[in-house]
Amino acid sequence: MDILKSIQTFQQVVEDKSFSKAAEQLNLVPSAVSRQITELESWLGVRLINRTTRSLHLTDEGRTYLSKMTAISRQVNDLKELNSVDERLTGHVKISAPIMLGQQHVPQIISSFNKQHPDVKISLVLMNRMVDIIEEGFDMAIRGGKLSDSNFHARMLGEVSFKTVASEAYLKRSAILDTPSALSEHNCLVNMATATPRRWTYKVNGKQKSFKIKGSLEANDSLCILALAREGMGVAMLPEQYVKMDLATNNLTEVLSEFATEPLPVSIIYPSSKLMSKTSRALIDYFVSAFNEID
């Protein structure tokens, strides 16, 4: 049994949550993938995956071994890089990011990085669910807010300020909006690309307070929410970068500015329990440098 190849197969099965999909990625037949997993389980003396006809799930032992195997894979990659005859970056880096954060700046940054390092494959996965970085095969994740998991390293990328906006046409025909509590009388544009789409947070009397909002329109894309606000369809809360031009040209008007919360910190995190490849380290450095140059 080729232990390294079996480890790679196991990691691919976990990432794809499917034997057939993993087989396709590895250019193998499903029976070969199944045989490698069975041999690996027999060699380790534990069951790694519980299989049914419709799904598969890691066992507790499988999660533990996955973490260890990921570290081994990183070390093997580092050994290969030490023997490299040039300084080219290679490999595959998988990044997770929330939809709203991932729409801004990130595509331009990875595009610029890839132009400099064309042998690197980058997978950017945008979702609002907080992924399990190790179990789901991610190398790093961009996250907003304060980080509490000590199992991860984090590097600060920047901050995101949010603004509450509406068109003048909407404000003229609607109730006065001078306090966050008045939002209950307004049609708020529900942004499903946020972690708490139906709750907006403001600073009231020096304390953070969450307000429940409601509205007849919702979308899972911030640019769509911005377009609806421009059309006078309601009140929106969006990152400052999204609305900066509209505020400057008076297409939109900011409201509730005196209740604005502190900017949301944005970080890039990665597991501290595994050695990083040279490519992953370079990409993280590139992200930090690129965000520092953003106005």
TrEMBL record:
<dbReference type="InterPro" id="IPR000847">
    <property type="entry name" value="LysR_HTH_N"/>
</dbReference>
<keyword id="KW-0805">Transcription regulation</keyword>
<keyword id="KW-0238">DNA-binding</keyword>
<keyword id="KW-0804">Transcription</keyword>
<dbReference type="GO" id="GO:0003700">
    <property type="term" value="F:DNA-binding transcription factor activity"/>
</dbReference>
<dbReference type="GO" id="GO:0003677">
    <property type="term" value="F:DNA binding"/>
</dbReference>
<dbReference type="InterPro" id="IPR036390">
    <property type="entry name" value="WH_DNA-bd_sf"/>
</dbReference>
<dbReference type="InterPro" id="IPR058163">
    <property type="entry name" value="LysR-type_TF_proteobact-type"/>
</dbReference>
<dbReference type="InterPro" id="IPR005119">
    <property type="entry name" value="LysR_subst-bd"/>
</dbReference>
<feature type="domain" description="HTH lysR-type">
    <location>
        <begin position="1"/>
        <end position="59"/>
    </location>
</feature>
<dbReference type="Pfam" id="PF03466">
    <property type="entry name" value="LysR_substrate"/>
</dbReference>
<dbReference type="Pfam" id="PF00126">
    <property type="entry name" value="HTH_1"/>
</dbReference>
<dbReference type="InterPro" id="IPR036388">
    <property type="entry name" value="WH-like_DNA-bd_sf"/>
</dbReference>
<protein>
    <submittedName>
        <fullName>LysR family transcriptional regulator for bpeEF and oprC</fullName>
    </submittedName>
</protein>
<comment type="similarity">
    <text>Belongs to the LysR transcriptional regulatory family.</text>
</comment>
